[in-house]
Amino acid sequence: MEKWFNVGKIVNTHGIRGEVRVISRTDFPEERYKKGNTLYIFMEKSKEPIEVIVKSHRVHKSFDLLSFEGYDNINLVEKFKGAMLKVPESQLGELNEGEYYFHEIIGCTVVTEEGETVGTVSEILTPGANDVWVVKRNNGKEVLIPYIEDVVKNVDVERKTITIRPMEGLLE
């Protein structure tokens, strides 16, 4: 069974020529929304996704504006409001060493170099210079782990484990 990954949400139409306003959910909008790329629209009440080909992409304010081949007026795209744009796992590109997709990190167990279990990654924040992994501890509290070389020592996506060297005060 094919696994699907969100790349954006269609929140509205834009103009009368079939453009849709998208809140992007991808780290690679230039790649995902490139002219000629195939995306899949998942509408709430539909069982099957609608395959579309990107005709154009531009950024306007904080939105990505997309148009699709064969959908050249507002009446044809109106029904897509609220739908999710997704790509199949087979379309995910290779990442450089030390780079991971969010789905590979979320759910990983975090342990210290001494073998103490810290908790499980529940969320990833992207506030600026580096990502911050939110780790839910067994006692229900959360710990914020910065994804930096000094702290994160090893990531094993196959075994779903992350080894860290906590900075002083990090786990308190």
UniProtKB/TrEMBL annotation:
Keywords: Chaperone, Cytoplasm, Ribosome biogenesis, rRNA processing
Molecular function terms from GO: ribosome binding
Xref: InterPro entries: PRC-brl_dom, PRC_barrel-like_sf, RimM, RimM_N, RimM_N_sf, Transl_B-barrel_sf
Cytoplasm as UniProt keyword: yes
Record's subunit section: Binds ribosomal protein uS19.
HAMAP family (UniProt xref): Ribosome_mat_RimM
Keyword Oxidoreductase: no
A GO cellular component annotation in the UniProt record: cytoplasm
Protein name: Ribosome maturation factor RimM
Subcellular location: Cytoplasm
Domain PRC-barrel: 97-171
Domain RimM N-terminal: 7-91
Family, similarity comment: Belongs to the RimM family.
Role noted for this protein: An accessory protein needed during the final step in the assembly of 30S ribosomal subunit, possibly for assembly of the head region. Essential for efficient processing of 16S rRNA. May be needed both before and after RbfA during the maturation of 16S rRNA. It has affinity for free ribosomal 30S subunits but not for 70S ribosomes.
PANTHER family: RIBOSOME MATURATION FACTOR RIMM (PTHR33692)
GO annotation, biological process: ribosomal small subunit biogenesis; rRNA processing
Principal localisation: cytoplasm
Organism in which the protein naturally occurs: Parageobacillus thermantarcticus
Domain statement: The PRC barrel domain binds ribosomal protein uS19.
A Pfam family per the record: PRC
